[in-house]
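Appendix C. Worked example: Serine hydrolase
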Amino acid sequence: MLRLPPVSLLAVLLLLLHYPVPAQTSTDKTDAKLTQKLTDALRGFKGDAGVYVLNLKTGKTAAINADTLFPTASTVKIPIMIGLFDQIQKGKISYGQEVVYRDSLHYDDGIVGSLKDGAKLPLSEVVMLMETVSDNTGSLWCQALAGGGTAINAWLDANGFPQTRVNSRTPGRQPFQKQYGWGQTTPRELASLLHYIRQGKAVSPDASDRMYRNLCRQYWDGDGLSQLPAEVKVACKNGAVNQSRSEVALVHAPHGDYVYCVMTKNQKDESWTRANEGFALLRTVAAVLWQHFEPKSTFKPVAGYEKWW
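Step 2, the predicted output written as structure tokens:
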């Protein structure tokens, strides 16, 4: 009989370090039931759609075209806000400083674009309008104050978001702007970016907290948010252009937080009513997720909601 020499505890530990236990594979973390529900929800959609979901309590995910590039539309205002807070953190601008509106900043006739030349307001209010009502002129103003798309993209790259980019008014990004518009991202990255803010990792813990609070004030709550109880706290940003609809949200659900992103492109339905197929998909996905994560909830969306939009 062959006798083996005794093995010390230290030797065992060194052996384990050299040959680590295999990490849990991605399939081990896939929520198969939810993935099937979402597959059914997306079936028949006239265009391209992608979804990414992460249950922050269990770590389980559901992903459909989650790494496909989509137009950001107004969800690009999340990375713009991060870029702005990065400049604030560096001391180049102040969140509460008074800024002066000039007619040269005008893009459209939203709230900021309707100001008179020379009007003064705190930068914090411009940021609030960018995230809450999705003011476009205010957003482009914030983009410029953030150092432009180049500076924002550099932050995204340095922090592990290589697919998320600002294209508009960004040198060298014109071909991408022609294809994707103001910005581009994937459902996985955009959901992960919102989660990154929630974790306190975007710029700094205090900056992340301020940004997260901004995202919890959403005027455009007639789509995905309309499928959740009004008392549930949600951080959210949505976007829409003719052939694309998108929404990213972190939901503080009773049985565990979850973050998700749903995006579309190449939609055949370019209408601007609430019945638009893309808007309808945002509501469908939100409802599927709520019912999946909160199966005992008695909440039902209020009927006749469309008359308010």
